[in-house]
Design goal:
Elements lengths: L1 H8 L14 H15 L5 H13 L1 H12 L1 H14 L3 H12 L16 E2 L8 E2 L15 E2 L2 E3 L5 E3 L5 E4 L2 E4 L5 E5 L10 E6 L3 E6 L5 E4 L3 E6 L7 E12 L8 E5 L2 E5 L3 E6 L5 E8 L2 E5 L5 E4 L3 E6 L5 E5 L2 H5 L5 E8 H12 L2 E4 L8 E7 L4 H9 L4 E6 L2 E6 L1
Parallel strand pairs: 2-24, 3-10, 8-10, 13-14, 23-26
Antiparallel strand pairs: 1-2, 4-5, 4-9, 6-7, 7-8, 9-12, 10-11, 11-13, 12-13, 13-16, 14-15, 15-18, 16-17, 17-20, 18-19, 20-21, 22-24, 25-26
Helix pairs in contact: 2-3, 3-4
Amino acid sequence: MFVTLFLRETVIVHVNAKMKMKDLNSGFKIADLIVKRLEDRLTDEECQYLEEWKQANEENSILFQKLSMNPEKQYLERESKLEKSNKKANWDKIQAKIKKGKVRKLNMNFLKIAAVLILTIGSTLFFSNLLDNNVSSVINPGKQQAILITSDGERYQLDEEVIIKEGDVFISNKTQELIYQKKSNITKSQLTYNTIIIPKGGEYKLTLMDGTRIWLNSNSKLRFPSEFGSGIRKVELKGEAFFEVAKDSVHPFVVNANKAQVKVLGTSFNVNAYLDLNEIVTTLVEGKVEVSDTLFGNKVKLLPNEQYRFNKSNGKTLKQVVDTEIYTAWKDGRFVFENESLEDIMIRLSRWYNVEVSFLNESVKELRFSGDLTRYDNIDQILELIEVTQKVKFTIKDRALWVEEV
């Protein structure tokens, strides 16, 4: 029975390394059918579907035989690997939970499927979280936290409730979102600026005076007027933010992001402009934007589902159609990777979990993974899923994370 629970939680499937995230449903369906086959619960229709998949190519057939002949061996190998890791205490807790039946069940519903799809070296790993969120870890995920600096230089920690009056402007965060409001309709002739700083391991939302909503990612900074004047609505971003801009055809909204500028009338888009990265990436979800840069004079207009990449070092640009969910999922509490290098994944994890990452082997930086998981799991849970590939090993001490080749 324990092996059956394991199979319901971890099904190894070879898939095309170029598979897109939108095709994952097919992979998960096969995973479910293989488990049902091992439990002798297939219907005639499901049996035919699985048989057609097996016959599609030799790789599928080999994988099916491997799983069908010795599921116990797979379970024992994985248990041995995790027990030998430097996270044995957490694994003991996971085992205890499984023995009590507190595991996530596998079925055809995408939200309940928990499967690890392991590929050969150079291919893509599709993974989702297998473990209970209650497993403890030294390094916890980020949370809602920020520092607000008002025009008079006062600093406020936004993990506590604040109510501020700045001239005619009322600022509060009662709903864990910083909101700017004003009772009068009088427009100020001189702008005063506020700054919100999101540390590593933080995130925060705010609503500006005009109704524009902004989600700020970890290690980001936004400078903005406490209330907009009669001209252009302009803010300055360092880091990453998602914008839902209030429509106003008379007053365009402009985001100055490092060496790039995004100009809109009313739309939703994501800007990734961290100072430590060479590329500035603008991804448009709705509306229309114009992106330009101050270094090389590039200028381009984007339509929904288009993305523009600008390299600050060499001026190279790339405009492409993308799945916007991959680049905006962070604001909804998820990490989504699609054929992304381990180096880039670790950069994102380091900001959110506030850890310093060091690679002991340069070669592992180029290992590529795809996956969709929650941002609010402890870091151990994510690292253990990647370690199951037996291509890479992680070691944590304090807030330092070392990555090495197995």
